[in-house]
Amino acid sequence: MTAVAPIKIWSGCDPQLEQALAALCIAWGPYSAQSRGYPIFKLLRELIDPAWSALCHRHPALSQDILVLAWMRFRLKMMIRTRQREESGLTGTSPLSSIAHKLGFDALDQFVHEVARAVLTKYSGREFDQLQPSLDTLREMAIRCRGKKPRQRALGKFGKVDLLDDMKTCRACERQTELAAHVATVGDACPAGEARRLSSTYCSIHSPEKSGSTMARANYKRARRSQQTFETELNRLERQYWGRPATAREGSTAPSVDEFFRQLSIRKGLAVDDGEAGNTHTDLELLLRREARKLVDQRMSDRKKEMVVLLSAGMSQPQVAEKLGLKSRQAVSKALQSIPADYRFDAPFVSEASAIA
Predict the structure, then answer these.
(1) What backbone torsions phi and psi does residue 114 show, to the nearest 5 degrees?
(2) Is residue 298 in a domain?
(3) Both 311 and 189 in a single domain?
(4) Which pLDDT does position 50 carry in this prediction?
(5) Among 145, 151, 150, 149, which Cα is nearest to 41's?
(6) Which has more confidence, 210 or 309?
(7) What are phi and psi of 176, to 5 degrees?
(8) Are 285 and 165 in the same domain?
(9) Which of 121, 147, 173 finishes a domain?
(10) Which of 29, 62, 133, 289 is at 20 to 30 A from 356, Cα to Cα?
């Protein structure tokens, strides 16, 4: 099972909320959204809901009017994206655990984002600065809880396959796992021997169980070696996706790397837009995973990302070399030769559709 990164608590977060999140991180070992015996919504109800309620009572900027306004904006955007009207029985003053349970953690993240927008609109200045770390921390919690996987994964009895969410997508890319692809083809009636033979973790490209296939084994080993890098890039893309396109979301130690992901999100349409419609959560998740896999396969290191951003800002290659502490301009030139055109932000952008035409 892939470990989920701990929840990042932003500096300036409300002390009571910070204490509740610390308790959540300690207790959430077996809990997940998919687990029946250990639903993570129970932890949210016991730990996070009281802290959120207390935060709303202490800050006038989180009044009932603000929460209702944020909820109306959130519901409107959800209706535009899904093109259907769903009555959940929730309101802006509903507990966060109820929103996550009925609508999902993506919905919780977007609702908190709308709360921040509503507060910024009416209470710009000191009041917003006090609340922003707490709201950003809640969004981090939603992202981490969404990625939390159950400890045990099991197949149904008598060969009937009951796929959990983490058994459907390859751990190393955006493709379906071998088991999910097989079930999608033949249905849920899968012989027990067949189910044991197919991988529920990797796709047919990255699966290690390919006897006699040297290429498949090499792909598996390469994916295992780069797994941590893949998860890091995916996490950065997710953070930038749910952030404002005009602002780089902090996700690394170098501001230039954060700026790279901001520009990448804008160029490839990987940022939430107020007018966005028609994309489902599954499509968006696969899109981000595909881009993260491409970054890893193309060996786009953080140093290369910094080079591209500095060049796009108008710096020359000698200036970039001096800025990054490299010995000569030739080091920059050599690195640029290995960067795909998609990531050369210093060059004119050519979309894939234009290139094909």
Answers:
(1) -70, -35
(2) yes
(3) no
(4) 93
(5) 145
(6) 309
(7) -70, 150
(8) no
(9) 147
(10) 289
How far is residue 225 from each of residues 5, 89, 172, 258, 300, measured CA to CA in Å?
18, 46, 10, 24, 15
Tell whether 270 and 337 lie within a shared domain: yes
Range of the domain at 179: 157-225
Tell me the angle at which helices 227-241 and 214-225 cross, rounded to the nearest 10 degrees: 60
- Round to whole Å and give the CA distance between 111 and 96: 9
Count of Cβ atoms closer than 10 Å to residue 129 Cβ: 12
**177 and 88 both lie in a single domain:** no
Please measure the distance between the N-terminal and C-terminal CA atoms of the chain and give it in whole angstroms: 43
Kind and range of the H or E run holding 73: helix 64-82
131 and 34, same domain (yes or no): yes
Apex 143 CA angle, 168 and 278, nearest 5: 65
Q: Dihedrals φ, ψ of 171, to 5°?
A: -70, -25
Q: Are residue 234 and residue 204 in the same domain, yes or no?
A: no
Phi, psi (rounded to 5 degrees) for 189:
-85, 95
Alpha-carbon torsion angle 143, 145, 148, 153, nearest 10: -130
8 falls within a domain: no
Q: Based on the fold, state whether residues 200 and 238 are members of the same structural domain.
A: no
Instruction: Please count the other Cβ atoms lying within 10 Å of the Cβ belonging to residue 161.
Output: 22
Among 176, 196, 225, identify where a domain stops: 225
In the chain, the number of structural domains is: 3
| 132-151 confidence digits (pLDDT tens) | 889 989 988 888 888 777 65
pLDDT digits (tens, 9 = 90+) for 81-92: 665 556 567 888
Three-class HEC string of 78-128: HHHHHCCCCCCCCCCCCCHHHHHHHHCHHHHHHHHHHHHHHHHHHCCCHHH
Q: pLDDT at position 274, please?
A: 44
Same-domain pairing of 248 and 267: yes
